[in-house]
C-alpha cells in the first residue's frame, strides 16, 4: 500500500490511502500522460496524491466554515496543487457552499450549539481514469469538538462520509476538479451544503404525527419504560462506524439507517413479531431475510404505531435515550431517514447516532440547522 500524509486546515494530519490507484505501466507512459493528460488512461502517484490533497483541502475548508471564529478556525489549505486545482465553475460552487455553511453555523448558534475544533481525515479509496477524465472515490472521517455553550454537551460528534470527485484534464497538462458529490443516502453531513425541495403527498396507512422543532420552554424527562434504553444506546454507539457482522448491510439497497435502528431496538428488548415479509404489521430478521418494516423507514413507522411499540412526541426535544427520530426531507409524505437517540444532555438536547452517513452523537439542533424545512417525527419507545 502506498500512502501519503499531509496536514489539514484544522491541524490534523491526514492519510490518503492510494492502494487502488491505477498507475502507468512504464516511465514512458507516465511521461506521455504528463504531456497529454487529455488522452490519459492512468495517473502517476504524484498526481494521485495531488487529487487526495485537493479533496482534503476542499472538505477541510467546508468543515472550517462551521468552527467557532474565536477559537481554532484556521486558514484552509490551498485549493490548488502545481498540476491540480479547482475549475472556475467549481470555485464558484465552493464559494456558494461556504456561504451556505456559514448560514448553517449561524442557525446552530441560535440553537445554542457551536464547535471549537475539528479533525478531518480523507482517504482516497479508488481512482479511475478514462480519456482525460478521472473519477476519485474518497472517504471522509470528521470529528468536531462541541463548544461548552451549556456545559453539558458530549465531548464530540463524528461522521464518516463518502464522496465522488470528478477531474478533467486540460490542454496545458493540468487537472481541474469539476465536481464533488456525496454518494451517501440519509441526512447531510454537517459540513455538506444542500437544500431540500418541498412537495406534498398523503397515505392511507398508519400515519405518524409531525413533531415541532422549536426549543421548548420546559424540558421533558423520559419516564421509565419496559425496554433497556441504555442497551440500545450502547449498541448503536458500538456499531455506528464498525458494522456488526451478525447483520446484513443495506447501504447499497436504499440505505442502512432503519436496519441499524432496528438492531439497536432489538438489543434493548424489542421482540420479533412474525408475519409475511411485506406485511408492515410484522417485524423480524433472520439469517436469510427480514421484514420490510425492519429495513424500511415508512414500514417501520407503520409497524411501530400499529403495534403500539412507540408513540409520537409533540417535539423533537422531548426525546430521550432510546427514542427514535425520522425525517421526511422534502415533505412528500414519505419518510426518508431513521435515527436513534444515544445521549441527552442535562439541559434537554438529544444527540442522535445513525448509519448512512455513519454518524455519532449528532445533536438534533445540528440536524435542524441543516434541514430547517423538513418534516420531523419523534417516537417515544
Automatic annotation (TrEMBL):
- Signal sequence span is 1-27
Bilayer-crossing regions: none
**Which UniProt keywords are listed?**
Signal
Pfam families recorded: Amidase_6
Domain (Putative amidase) ranges: 226-378
- Lineage, top-rank taxon, reads Bacteria
Please give the name of this protein. Putative amidase domain-containing protein
Protein species of origin: Streptomyces demainii
Amino acid at each position: 500500500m502506498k500512502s501519503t500524509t499531509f496536514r489539514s486546515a484544522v491541524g490534523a494530519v491526514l492519510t490518503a490511502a492510494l492502494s487502488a490507484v491505477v498507475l502507468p505501466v512504464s516511465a514512458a507512459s507516465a511521461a506521455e500522460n504528463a504531456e497529454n493528460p487529455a488522452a490519459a488512461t492512468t495517473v502517476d502517484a504524484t498526481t494521485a496524491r495531488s487529487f487526495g490533497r485537493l479533496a482534503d483541502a476542499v472538505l477541510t475548508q467546508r468543515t472550517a466554515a462551521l468552527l467557532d471564529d474565536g477559537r481554532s478556525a484556521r486558514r484552509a489549505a490551498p485549493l490548488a496543487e502545481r498540476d491540480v486545482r479547482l475549475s472556475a465553475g467549481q470555485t464558484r460552487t465552493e464559494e456558494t457552499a461556504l456561504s451556505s455553511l456559514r448560514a448553517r453555523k449561524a442557525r446552530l448558534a441560535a440553537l445554542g450549539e457551536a464547535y471549537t475544533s475539528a479533525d478531518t481525515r480523507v482517504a482516497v479509496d479508488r481512482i479511475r481514469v478514462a480519456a482525460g477524465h478521472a473519477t476519485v472515490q474518497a472517504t471522509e472521517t470528521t470529528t468536531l469538538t462541541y463548544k461548552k455553550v451549556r456545559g453539558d454537551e458530549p465531548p464530540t460528534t463524528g461522521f464518516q462520509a463518502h464522496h465522488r470527485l470528478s477531474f478533467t484534464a486540460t490542454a496545458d497538462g493540468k487537472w481541474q476538479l469539476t465536481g464533488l458529490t456525496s454518494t451517501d443516502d440519509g441526512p447531510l453531513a454537517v459540513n455538506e451544503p444542500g437544500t431540500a425541495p418541498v412537495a406534498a403527498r398523503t397515505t392511507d396507512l398508519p400515519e405518524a404525527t409531525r413533531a415541532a422543532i422549536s426549543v421548548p420552554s420546559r424540558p421533558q424527562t423520559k419516564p421509565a419504560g419496559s425496554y433497556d434504553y441504555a442497551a440500545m444506546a450502547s449498541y448503536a454507539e458500538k456499531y455506528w462506524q464498525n458494522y456488526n457482522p451478525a447483520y446484513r448491510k443495506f447501504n447499497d439497497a436504499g440505505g442502512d439507517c432503519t436496519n441499524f435502528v432496528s438492531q439497536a431496538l432489538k438489543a434493548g428488548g424489542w421482540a420479533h413479531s412474525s408475519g409475511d415479509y411485506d406485511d408492515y404489521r410484522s417485524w423480524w430478521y433472520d439469517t436469510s431475510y427480514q421484514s420490510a418494516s425492519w429495513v424500511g423507514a415508512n414500514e417501520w413507522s407503520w409497524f411501530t404505531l400499529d403495534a403500539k411499540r412507540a408513540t409520537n412526541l409533540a417535539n423533537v426535544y422531548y426525546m430521550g435515550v432510546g427514542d427514535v427520530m425520522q425525517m421526511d426531507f422534502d415533505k412528500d409524505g414519505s419518510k426518508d431517514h431513521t435515527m436513534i437517540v444515544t445521549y441527552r444532555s442535562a439541559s434537554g438536547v438529544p444527540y442522535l447516532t445513525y448509519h448512512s452517513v455513519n454518524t455519532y452523537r449528532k445533536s438534533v439542533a445540528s440536524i435542524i440547522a441543516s434541514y430547517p424545512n423538513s418534516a420531523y417525527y419523534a417516537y417515544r419507545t
